[in-house]
Amino acid sequence: MSEEVDKKLSPVENKVLAALEDVIDPELGIDMVNLGLIYKINVDDKGNCVITMTLTTMGCPIGNLLADSISEAVTSVEGVNTCDIDLVWEPAWSIDRMSRFAKVALGIHE
After folding, report:
1. The whole model's pTM is what?
2. pLDDT tens column, 50-105
3. Rounded to whole angstroms, what are the CA distances from 95 to 9, 36, 51?
4. What fold characterizes domain 3-100?
């Protein structure tokens, strides 16, 4: 997520962001946040959370596994009752969205 988005998160949305750092892409071994796959987090007053995100590729074979892990992590946060995932393809994911940590871990040098 961009720094711009991070600054706009509520306290519960920040907790959701932290929980998503525990969801690891099994193919890459890096969490969803550091991979830059999480575009937006929105939790309403009733505890309904919508995660806007993408995948590294459209045909990602582990998409359903990741969705289950994301929902489980998000609903474990106090104050969150439901989790819906809005899977988007725009803007397209690229390695530029990855954090420095993820790039170093994967051996990608800038």
Report:
1. 0.87
2. 999 998 877 776 677 888 999 999 999 999 999 999 999 999 999 999 999 999 99
3. 24, 8, 20
4. GMP Synthetase; Chain A, domain 3 (3.30.300)
